[in-house]
Design a protein that fits this description.
Layout: H1 8-13, H2 19-27, H3 30-34, H4 38-48, E1 58-65, E2 72-79, H5 88-123, H6 136-149
Antiparallel strand pairs: 1-2
């Protein structure tokens, strides 16, 4: 007669069908496994089971040692979708950081475009204000000439 409540004995019997519980039986002594309540075993089953949120597109880790240093270092590189649940404050901070990064990239792009247009204007010999120069074109020409000749460019 079954009362509908799973006992540790009945859950250990069902472990042959469940790979997670079979793994748990292999890791723990039988007397310790028998001491867990059905709720605890269900929680362990959830923790040890394959969970889709743990899968990552890229998951590299390893160790390396540098020559002449008698220590090992480890590295972890993970890349994948962020499925965490953020609080309201964390979402606002995250949006501000993303917005700031986008503004920074746009500003940097505009500055590089203006610099490129200034170099192009100077290369074509256009002079909008006679006698006024920032000296960027002269520096750029020297830099290219020194770079082409193999000499170390001077940044002064």
């Amino acid at each position: 007669m079954s009362s509908g409540v799973e006992t540790p004995e009945s859950s250990s019997v069902a472990a042959s069908d469940d790979p997670v519980l079979a793994r748990l039986q292999a890791l723990l002594p039988p007397e310790l496994l028998a001491s867990y309540s059905p709720e605890q075993i269900a929680g362990i089953r959830i923790l040890l089971s394959e969970q889709p949120w743990r899968k990552r597109t890229l998951d590299l880790s390893g160790t390396f040692a540098l020559p002449l240093i008698k220590r090992q270092f480890y590295y972890v590189i993970q890349f994948g979708r962020d499925n965490r649940i953020y609080s309201r404050r964390e979402r606002h901070v995250r949006l501000l950081i993303i917005f700031g990064f986008i503004v920074f990239l746009c500003g940097l792009s505009i500055l590089l475009a203006l610099f490129g247009l200034y170099l192009l204007k100077s290369a074509m010999g256009m002079d909008f204000i006679p006698g006024a120069s920032l000296g960027v074109w002269d520096w750029f020409r020297e830099f290219i000439n020194d770079f082409g000749s193999g000499a170390a460019p001077q940044l002064n």
